[in-house]
Amino acid sequence: METAHGTAVRPRLDQPRTSRPSLISLPSYDPEAFGRLSERIARFLGTGRFLVWMTVVIILWVAWNTLMPAVVRFDSYPFIFLTLVLSLQASYAAPLILLAQNRQDDRDRVNMEQDRDRAERSIADTEYLTREVAALRQGLGEVATRDFLRSELQGLLRELEERREATEPV
């Protein structure tokens, strides 16, 4: 390697190479974008709209190749080309659907783990609150409540009134 001034530049050993030259340059792709695209296609393949459009195309194909003059027909009776097109569509649809299902399984697994974590936290919170309520009940068992004090004071008041009445001269 040389710089603009003609001096040789030695590679730095403390930094990784940015890229390694290869004999075959494969195109790079974003797996997440490809997965999203495959899910969109798989969702469309699973709709009634797709079935209607596929049926319309097949009916038009068969009608064109049976009712039109022989000069403009492009696929004669056994419809070999139509079979090829449908086979090609099926051969691409199956892996795309499987890829979309795998991605959905991964999302479901993550959601299940999050739900399990939430449930564990809820159980721990419930157990904590149960222990706190039990501690409060124990504490309240030892503390006089307002109703208890009121009834005791009313009893003492009655007792005092009875004693006063007993000691007063008539």
TrEMBL record:
Keywords: Membrane, Transmembrane, Transmembrane helix
Membrane-spanning residues: 50-67, 79-99
Signal peptide positions on this chain: none
Keyword match Coiled coil: no
Pfam families, sorted: DUF1003
InterPro entries to which the protein is assigned, alphabetical: DUF1003 (IPR010406)
Ranges where the record places region Disordered: 1-21
Protein name as annotated: DUF1003 domain-containing protein
Source species of the chain: Streptomyces tateyamensis
